[in-house]
Hints:
By secondary structure, the chain is an alpha/beta fold. The chain has two domains: 19-256, Rossmann fold (3-Layer(aba) Sandwich); 266-365, no CATH class. Helix content is 45%, strand content 13%. It contains 14 helices and ten strands. It has helices at residues 34-39, 58-68, 89-102, 119-139, 151-164, 178-186, 215-223, 232-236, 253-256, 266-290, 297-314, 324-335, 348-354, 356-365, and strands at residues 28-29, 42-43, 50-52, 78-87, 108-114, 143-149, 190-191, 198-206, 226-229, 249-250. The strands form two sheets. Strands 3, 4, 5, 6, 7, 8, 9 and 10 form an eight-stranded mixed sheet that branches. Strands 1-2 form a two-stranded antiparallel ribbon. Strand 7 and strand 8 (198-206) form a beta hairpin. Helix 11 (297-314) runs antiparallel to helix 12. The longest helix has 25 residues, at 266-290. The protein is globular and about 65 Å long.
Amino acid sequence: LPPILSGEERDVNGSPINPYARVYPHEFIQTGISIIDVMFSLIRGQKLPIFSQSGLPHDIIAAQIARQATIPGEEEEFAIVFGGVGLRSAEAEYFIEEFRRSGALERSVVVLNLASDPPVERLLTPRIALTIAEYLAFDLNMHVLVILIDMTNYCEALREMSTARGEVPGRGGYPGYMYSDLASIYERAGIVRGRSGSITIMPILTMPGGDLRHPIPDTTGYITEGQIILSTELNAKGIYPPVDVLPSLSRLMRSGVGAGKTREDHKAVADQLYDAYARGVKARDLASIVGEVGLSQRMRRYLKFADAFEEKFINQDAYEERSIDESLDLAWEVLSLIPEDELVRIPRSLISKYHPKYRRGASREH
């Protein structure tokens, strides 16, 4: 990171990027987390939230992404701006210790707001973080990933301030302008034509009561470009990170992966994983009613795949970093549990090149 800048004042409210000046995002950011990199890829300039619940390890995921995230080949120009909003003292200490221990602090700017601080400071924290990000991105031409946690605390502070001003409440007691207020923050992400830097935002929020239709996640979903949803069921199984695959989505993924960006088989592998896992979940639901013995052999295969997908592919240690090639190779290992003739989402040419059976055969020949 550059030396600390002092003596200059900037408006922390900033302004959303002019749509005409925006460049469409198309460059992959590697988080080192297989399930995100392969199936819900983060693209430079995107705004991709994580929807969590109380008790789930979103703080550990945030710290892992802050440690590991990079644009392959452009590590020197990559920076993290971390905005902690309404954190408990123990949470703040955890993040600071993680940043120091891992060395991530050398490429990071950390802005922390504690739960004991005044609510008005919670409204300033993400804006201060983004103002710093804009300086790094558009003045110093760096690629900046902004992680904001927990934006639910921000919205609660917004409601508290609105109530104190005597404003008419909207849905759920939140102010009617919450949508435009959040948009004024998230729309500061992007790539500007003629500038080398970029801002990518990954807001993390806890859904009150685990309700995806609650005003906070519902409003956020309309502004951002996808969502990664965490699962209490997977967390109870000991799977980390407990990403709920079927309802999660990265809308800009297609523009940033594939040949020349990640690997030529990326899109097809992601499609096949999603299709096979959906079948496996359906088989699991059916088995809970009729028992596994009541399933056809084909359904039992998909049930076995779903278990392996969760335990071997989704599951990884919080301190394990996997490259995109390692993640895709692991995906192929799991897909090898399915007969080749059922890998209908993957072209035959890619199966012949990347399927473990053919790769092992090629290695034996050499």
